[in-house]
Amino acid sequence: MSALFSAGPVREALISDLIVVLVLALFLAAGWAARRNEIWREALVGVLRRRRYSVLVLSLYVFVALLDSVLWVGGAHSVTSTGADKVALQEARSPLDRAFADSSEKSYSAPLSRVEFYDVSALARPGSHVFGTNVLGQDVLYLTIKGARVALLIGGLTSLIAIPLALFFGILAGYFGGRIDDVVFFVMSTLVSMPGILLLIALIMALGQSTFSVCVALGVTSWVGFCRLARGETMKLRELDFVAAARSLGVKDRVILVRHILPNLMHLVVITFVLMFSGLVLSEATLAWLGIGVNGSWGQMIAQAKDELSRDPIVWWNVVAAGAALFVLLLAVNRVGDALRDVFDPRTRGEKL
Amino acid sequence: MLAYVVRRLGYGCFVVLGVLFFLFALFFLVTTPDDIAQRALGEKAMPQVVERWKENHGYNRPLWPGPGHTTDNLLVDHFQKMLTFEFGNSDADGVPIRQRISEGALPSLLLTVPMFVIGITLGIGISLFVAFFRETYIDRLGVFVSVLTMSIPLLLYIIGGQFLLGKMLRWFPVSGFDLHPGVLARFLALPILVGVLSSLGSDVRFFRTVFIEEIFKDYVRTARAKGAGEMRVMTGHVLRNAMIPVVTNVVMAIPFLFTGSLLLEAGFGIPGLGSLTVEAIQANDFSTLRAMVFLGSLLFIFGQILTDIAYTWVDPRIRLE
Amino acid sequence: MALEVEGLTTEFPLGDRRVPIVDDVSFVLPEGRCLALVGESGSGKSMTALSLLRLVPRPGRVTRGSIRLGGRELRHLSVPEIRHVRGHKLAMIFQEPQTSLNPVVRVGEQVTEAILLHERIGRGEARKRALGLFERVGIPEPGARFDYYPHQLSGGLKQRVMISMALSMRPEVLIADEPTTALDVTIQAQILALLRDLQGEFGMSILLITHDLGVVNQLADEVLVLYAGRVVEKAATNQLLSQPLHPYTRGLLDSLPGRRRPGERLYEIQGVVPSPLDWPRGCRFCTRCPEVFEPCAEQTPPLEAFSSEQSAACHARHRERPGT
Lengths: 353, 321, 324
Description:
The structure holds three protein chains of three kinds. Chain A is mainly α.
């Protein structure tokens, strides 16, 4: 059973291509919403205007992640390749991998240094490692940039699992009520009652460690919150006049759900997606610290580098690079999420006239 | 009122059963006893060794009740162990889990209770201050700093705190724990500080939203029209109403004081329940993990019932229905 | 003590402009009298009342004019001083007793708070006073009701609690903002009767804010009609009800059911009150006025006295009836 979720190179590659699709879908959805509906257009323009820099930063992260998600095999290889790089030539590599090919050293080196950190022997590529190299001699800048894809994968893939699930059950329970609601509510109560992080750990241990199982576990633990929100909102919408009118005219339930209920929940979807994203990336960092995170994530970089801080002289650039990348992403996401909530929720917009 | 409490307790029991079934599915059906044994022994373990391991750890029994083993099966065993709080022995080293948990509870509480009290007090105080200066630069700065501090993962707080305050400034020991009263506070100060700081941002933001929502209500205008000053309006009227969501939030957090903080305990070497869980993960100790999840959910369900009762106590509209 | 208001202007920033939601409003409320501010929602009547107490919600601000209570200017009082005026000299009751009372505080406590904020007396003394007030405003079983929470009282009783709270310091002026709008019709009459009795008994003046001309007729001595933040007509109640000068006042009166024969269609004023951003430059009523002509859109008509008891701000009065 758990073998189903274990990692394989093919599966990892598939998942990483999923990001390209996801990002494109997001852009298309935003464009479509802005064209169709004035409220959405105003909201999106408002967020763009108020959070110019955060949006810019996010675009940069997405761009870098996209750069790392397009893979192909082959291409020119240099003569100086070390063993590890030679193996890498047989694998599918992204433009990013190609740009940093042959960047490995033997061990630690400080940022922009010309010699090894605990030695005086010269580096293969002196002065070219902006963030230095780690214990294995890998370029830290390269690893940091690669982390963007992993972060997006964690947030994006998990949301893709959790939000539709939550929306489906939330609407169903809220609209039809009765037995369906009882069952959905019971499942939600059961899931939320298990402490999030412990449940997460239990799921990952049960499913086996891989990117996909981490995302599934995060999905299982995070869909409940939004499901509750969607359920409550649907219950409210159900009582509103336009829905009551449609029902009394004999419009089919399916049509009401798709035409009246769903569109009125979309703003919540957007807000939840953004706020959930930062929570997911944070959770993964916690998991990485516990040794069950996703390979190549910033959390893992930090967890692996934490002991290097107690070396003497200290090796600080690993933690700083990964920490800064993580912090800037989360800050940008939280700022945009805040703005989105303000734009869509008039209650927080200040005093009324 | 009594009927309400009884009904809530009844539903709580129902949810406990749900959790038990979920855990059974997760730890016996998704991860079969063979998987568990293999994780403990490694991929290449001989079948006989696996069998022996399963026998030693009680995993060799049938999963479901059936003829000849109505009580001697894993499902009944699982329910029995959990509901009697016996929990069985650790998969890793055979120590009774119950003993481990009772040893870990005190260090966890010593860490989490002060963290909780200081955190809530500071959170409410700062958010009242920020809400008082709403729509000014103080407010905007407060919100910005909250979001800023929320965006830093707890890992970085721990690393940063240990490095700056422990290693560079030498104010606190970097990590460690000792129950001796003289040094206990020295060891706990840094984890508590880090814990409070890391959660302050989201607390302030939540409480501020609650307060601001109350400030715009009509009864606040009435209080001002009576001649009440801003201080009196905030403490006597706004705070009293805002207590409803605040209490919900606060009571809900209490059960988690017992399960401890995984990262803080692991990071600072405090031998509490959090560390116990972390060790269980590293040792593939499924039985300890199962016990911790169950204990956590039990406390959560209990906390939820407590919250509902507290809710009726703070809000007369519900109490007197 | 008389309340004299002159040129009161309260502005709100809207977009990049500042809009005068209350625009140059002047009136005098003599001691022991009742003046009504009448207008549709959005006419600025509630904001006028809040301006008097300096309770205009941010980012709005009183920008011009003077507010004098017994000759004392309220606009320049310090914060502790104006706080002392609120509830003590100038008290207010609000439209929605449901939301205007604090839901988690016992009603008795809310009334004693109003007393204890202004007087240094013991809790027991304050309680006794509050109980007396409860009795006076007609709350049955005041002793038991004292410990009730607002949601346990009916709308009418809640409004009585509000009134007792406002009267607890025997204010000089009571501002009643739509005191009966949220209540049942039968309760409305009781509350109005109560207000009239209390006015005589306490010798206070009432500034009555309402959109209901029936209420005006029962309580007010003089009426001020507001439209889009401006005073359009000012007259003694009888005069206004029998011979309105401004087309807007006439429209309001003609839309009352009592003015028409059964079965006849009620009059309606065309259109709706424009949003503050779309207020016309001249007379703000010109977009809906049946008598509009050239100067209306460009020039603001001044408030002119047409008799000792009646003034109006309307260009059309000069065209039609130059004699009156």
